[in-house]
C-alpha cells in the first residue's frame, strides 16, 4: 500500500473506534436507514447478492441482512470491521465480513447484483480505479447505489485526515453531480443517474441541512 492509503487506513484503525458515536455519521438515526431498508425490501430475496463497499461499522450491510439478503461487507479497517462483527452477532444477523481494499477486491468478476457505498465516495484516492473494480465484481444488470455529499462551503479541511491528504482526494473538494457522473462513465458505467435530497446533518451547526446526491449506476 502507498503512503497516502497507509495514512488513511490508519486513521480508521484509530479514530474509527468512535465512529458510531458521531451524530454526522447517522448511525443512531432511524431515518437514515429508511431508504436503504426500502431498497432492500424491494429486491428479490433469492437472487440478490449485496456488497456493502466501505462497510465501516456495518450500517448498510446490517440493514440488508435484516431483510434476509445475502450480504458481504468489505472494509480495509479491522477496527471498523470488528465493531460490525459485534453488532451482527448481537442482532443474530449473518454477514460475510471481508478485510480488503476497494481498488483490488478478492472477488471474482460478476459476483454481486447490488453494490452499496454510503459515505464512501469522498474518501476514494482514485475514484475511477475504484469504480472500474466495482463494475468488475457486479453482474451484468447489477447496480451501484452510492451517496455523495459535496463539501459544504465553510467546512474545514483536515476533519478526517490531514489537510494535505484531504486535498489529494478528488471527490473531497465539492464536485458537482455531473462531475461525479462523468467519473462513473469513465469507469465504464453507461447508465448513470442521480437524485438530489436534503438531509439534516450533525456536522457543525452552520452547514446544515446538507445536499446529498444519490447515484444509481447500472452495469
Ligand atoms: C465514512 S466511512 C463509511 C462507513 C459506512 N459505509 C457507513 O455508512 O457508516 C468510510 C469507510 O470506508 C473505508 N474505506 C475507505 N477507503 C477504503 C479503501 N480504499 N478500501 C476499503 N475500505 C475503505 C473506511 O475504512 C471506512 O470504514
Q: Overview of this structure, please?
A:
- The protein has 219 residues and is of the alpha/beta class.
- The chain has one domain: Rossmann fold (3-Layer(aba) Sandwich), CATH 3.40.50.
- 33% of the residues lie in helices and 23% in strands.
- The chain has 7 helices and 7 strands.
- Strands 3-2-1-4-5-7-6 form a 7-stranded mixed beta sheet, sandwiched between helices.
- Helix 2 crosses helix 3.
- 33% of the residues are buried.
- About 3% of the residues have low confidence.
- The structure holds S-adenosylmethionine (SAM).
- S-adenosylmethionine binds next to helix 3.
What's the short story on this structure?
This protein has 7 helices and 7 strands; from the N terminus they run ααβαβαββαβααββ.
Radius of gyration over all CA atoms, rounded: 16 Å
What composes the largest sheet?
Answer: 7 strands, mixed
CATH architecture: 3-Layer(aba) Sandwich
Examine the coordinates and then state which fold CATH places here, giving the name of the CATH topology.
Rossmann fold
What bound compounds does this protein have? Answer: S-adenosylmethionine
Query: What is the rounded distance between the termini?
Result: 28 Å
The domain tally reads 1
CATH superfamily: Vaccinia Virus protein VP39
Q: What would you call the structural class? A: alpha/beta
List keywords for this structure.
single chain; 219 residues; alpha/beta; Rossmann fold; 33% helix; binds S-adenosylmethionine
Detail the topology: elements first, then pairings.
Elements: H1 3-14, H2 30-41, E1 49-53, H3 59-66, E2 70-75, H4 78-91, E3 96-99, E4 112-117, H5 127-137, E5 138-148, H6 163-167, H7 177-186, E6 191-199, E7 210-218
Parallel strand pairs: 1-2, 1-4, 2-3, 4-5
Antiparallel strand pairs: 5-7, 6-7
Bound molecules: S-adenosylmethionine.
Amino acid at each position: 500500500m502507498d503512503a497516502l492509503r497507509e495514512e488513511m487506513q490508519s486513521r480508521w484503525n484509530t479514530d474509527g473506534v468512535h465512529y458510531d458515536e458521531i451524530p454526522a455519521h447517522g448511525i443512531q438515526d432511524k431515518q437514515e436507514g429508511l431508504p436503504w431498508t426500502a431498497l432492500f425490501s424491494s429486491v428479490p430475496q433469492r437472487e440478490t447478492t449485496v456488497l456493502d463497499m466501505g462497510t465501516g461499522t456495518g450500517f448498510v450491510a446490517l440493514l440488508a441482512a435484516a431483510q434476509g439478503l445475502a450480504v458481504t461487507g468489505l472494509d480495509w479497517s479491522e477496527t471498523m470491521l470488528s465493531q460490525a462483527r459485534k453488532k451482527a452477532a448481537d442482532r443474530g444477523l449473518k454477514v460475510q465480513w471481508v478485510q480488503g481494499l476497494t481498488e483490488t477486491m478478492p472477488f471474482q468478476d460478476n459476483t454481486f447484483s447490488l453494490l452499496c457505498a454510503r459515505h464512501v465516495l469522498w474518501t476514494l484516492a482514485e475514484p475511477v480505479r475504484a469504480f472500474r473494480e466495482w463494475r468488475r465484481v457486479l453482474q451484468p444488470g447489477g447496480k451501484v447505489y452510492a451517496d455523495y455529499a459535496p463539501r459544504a462551503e465553510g467546512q474545514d479541511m483536515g476533519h478526517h485526515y490531514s489537510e494535505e491528504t484531504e486535498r489529494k482526494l478528488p471527490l473531497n473538494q465539492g464536485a458537482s453531480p455531473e462531475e461525479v457522473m462523468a467519473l462513473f462513465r469513465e469507469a465504464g458505467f453507461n447508465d448513470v443517474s442521480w437524485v438530489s435530497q436534503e438531509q439534516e446533518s450533525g456536522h457543525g451547526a452552520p452547514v446544515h441541512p446538507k445536499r446529498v446526491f444519490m447515484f444509481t449506476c447500472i452495469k
